[in-house]
Amino acid sequence: MSVNFYPPLDLKVITPKLELRGATDALLTQLLPIVREGVAERQPDPFDDPMSLYDDNPVRERKWLQAIWRGRGTVRPDAWRLYFVVMLGEEAVGMQDLIGVNFDTFRTVTSFSWLAPGARQQGLGREMRAAILHLAFEGFGAAQASSEAFFDNVASNRVSEALGYQANGHDWATRRGEPAVLNRWRLTRDVWALDRRSNIELVGVEACKPVLFIQ
Description:
Layout: E1 12-14, E2 19-22, H1 25-37, H2 59-73, E3 79-88, E4 91-101, H3 103-106, E5 108-115, H4 124-139, E6 144-150, H5 154-162, E7 166-175, E8 178-188, H6 189-194, E9 201-203, H7 205-208
Helix pairs in contact: 1-2
Organism: Deinococcus humi
Pfam family, one: Acetyltransf_3
Protein name: RimJ/RimL family protein N-acetyltransferase
């Protein structure tokens, strides 16, 4: 039975290591202490501008929540964003987003994620990306997924490589106002299917599709 009035908040992606749950306000509240302490306090800076996680408290917490609330309410056939809280058992340790980009025309998605400092270097970054790709390709019928990471964001670039993404050129972006090179990555449905996992469970997909205008 649904516990929310908005189907995307009932979405779940379950793997042997972790669970992605639709980011309800209750789950976001669990993440607030992590956001308060900071998830981007080590060099090199991982995120491009604008980024609320770079702001000082309490502005950081307010802007972070406001961005998620705005994103929930901005849903069009060509553009939408789903927010998930990464759960280890009942502990919230990060976020994983799936973003539809011209989805009605090209079936393309991208993703965004972060982990609490204490949850890093445990293979969770790769597992949560694999989970969100399974939702995109298996659940929503995506044709292609893209990813971007700064050239010195070793962990993110390694995850993309390990999951079969192919290098797709470079771009520029700023972080804290300073320019830096972005590596671009591309994963097609056919390549994803070569190593498609059979141990990832999707919950609530069909109820979510009409909200996202997915046929």
